[in-house]
């Protein structure tokens, strides 16, 4: 039944590989719990769902992990009820736990430049490796792509003349992302070193080649991308813990900070729900307050007060 469900969420629901693995693990862990309670996966008690939440909470599991497991098990039992394997869903009325609104960590502008500069310090005999490292950083920050979207890119998905790339996000949803000047220049140097151009004057790329490759010119894995980015952060002597997703957070944060409409940011990130994107609006509060103070008649700071503050600073 579990294998049948995993096949369903994979082929029908088309969930991501990471989500599918998490679902399988969550269901297996719950099965161990319910068996220890002298019951079975297909014969749950009406209070089983709530009892499991209490058990997880008492075990010290954080609310976000508990909530993810609730969603996984609710989805599993919905499927089981549909197939008449069980008569009810023990997680149907189980509420998710309240969790802290942890704001995404992102780079400051100067930190992005510091890491870009560090890409060229890699100790590798192959020059294209240094160029690849800078190209990865620039691509992730310029487009806001997930690392999984970046590593599956092929050359025919990039248009160097238009400065765009086609990527496939969750559930294979296609979207167009945009390449800034720095990303285009980094990719151009990187592709030139790889011999990927079939015509340099028109910037036409050879088709069907993996964009980001390892030292033997095979497509890099997600783990490989994590290693590359972690190594660059070490070279840049970054104090914070760095992950590929921080470039995505930085992309969204900096766009909103510079005044971009949140609906456009949602489109560029490939979020299905606007509520997912709204976490990035925290950065705009200070800027909005400044605009309010300068523009609104009742919110405007007294001009004499501003002059006094300025004179005191001299």
Structural account:
The N and C termini lie far apart (75 Å). This protein has helices at 2-11, 17-36, 48-58, 63-82, 109-119, 127-143, 147-151, 181-194, 222-235, 245-257, 262-269, 274-277, 284-295, 303-313, and strands spanning 158-159, 164-168, 174-178, 197-199, 204-205. It has a three-stranded antiparallel sheet with strand order 1-2-3, with no helix packed on it. The chain is mainly alpha-helical and 314 residues long. The chain is 54% helix and 5% strand. The protein contains 14 helices and five strands. The longest helix is centred in the N-terminal third of the chain and has 20 residues, at 17-36. A hairpin with a 5-residue loop joins β2 and β3.
Strand order of the largest sheet: 1-2-3
> Which class of secondary structure composition applies to the elements?
mainly alpha
Radius of gyration: 25 Å
Mean pLDDT: 85
Question: Could you tell me the number of beta strands?
Answer: 5
Strand fraction: 5-15%
Helix content class: 40-55%
Gap between N and C termini: 75 Å
In the predicted model, the low-confidence regions spanning at least 5 consecutive residues are 303-307
Largest sheet: 3 strands, antiparallel
Topology order in helix (H) and strand (E) letters = HHHHHHHEEEHEEHHHHHH
The gross shape turns out to be: globular
Number of helices: 14
Q: What would the keywords be for this entry?
A:
two-stranded antiparallel sheet; three-stranded antiparallel sheet; globular; mainly alpha; 314 residues; 54% helix
């Amino acid at each position: 039944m579990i294998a049948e469900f995993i096949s369903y969420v994979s082929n029908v629901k088309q969930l991501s590989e990471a989500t599918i693995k998490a679902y399988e693990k969550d269901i297996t862990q719950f099965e161990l719990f319910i068996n220890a309670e002298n019951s079975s996966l297909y014969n749950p008690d009406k209070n089983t769902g709530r009892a499991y939440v209490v058990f997880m909470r008492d075990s010290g599991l954080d609310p976000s992990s508990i909530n993810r497991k609730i969603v996984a098990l609710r989805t599993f039992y919905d499927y089981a009820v549909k197939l008449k394997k069980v008569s009810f869903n023990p997680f149907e009325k189980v509420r998710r736990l309240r969790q802290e609104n942890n704001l995404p960590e992102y780079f400051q502008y100067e930190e992005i430049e510091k890491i870009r500069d560090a890409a060229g310090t890699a100790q590798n005999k192959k020059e294209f490796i240094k160029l690849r490292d800078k190209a990865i950083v620039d691509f992730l920050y310029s487009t806001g792509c997930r690392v999984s979207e970046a590593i599956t890119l092929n050359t025919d998905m990039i248009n160097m003349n238009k400065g765009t790339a086609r990527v496939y996000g969750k559930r294979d949803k296609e979207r167009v992302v945009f390449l800034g000047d720095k990303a285009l220049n980094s990719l151009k140097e990187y592709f030139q070193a790889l011999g990927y151009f079939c015509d340099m004057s028109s910037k036409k790329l050879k088709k069907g080649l993996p964009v980001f490759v390892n030292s033997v010119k095979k497509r890099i894995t997600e783990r490989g991308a994590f290693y590359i980015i972690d190594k660059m952060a070490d070279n840049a002597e970054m104090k914070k813990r760095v992950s590929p997703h921080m470039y995505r957070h930085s992309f969204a944060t900096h766009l909103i900070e510079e005044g971009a409409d949140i609906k456009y940011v949602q489109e560029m990130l490939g979020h299905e729900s606007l509520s997912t994107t709204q976490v990035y609006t925290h950065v705009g509060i200070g800027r909005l307050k400044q605009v309010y103070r300068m523009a609104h008649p009742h919110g405007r700071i007294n001009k004499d007060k501003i002059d006094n503050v300025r004179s005191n600073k001299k």
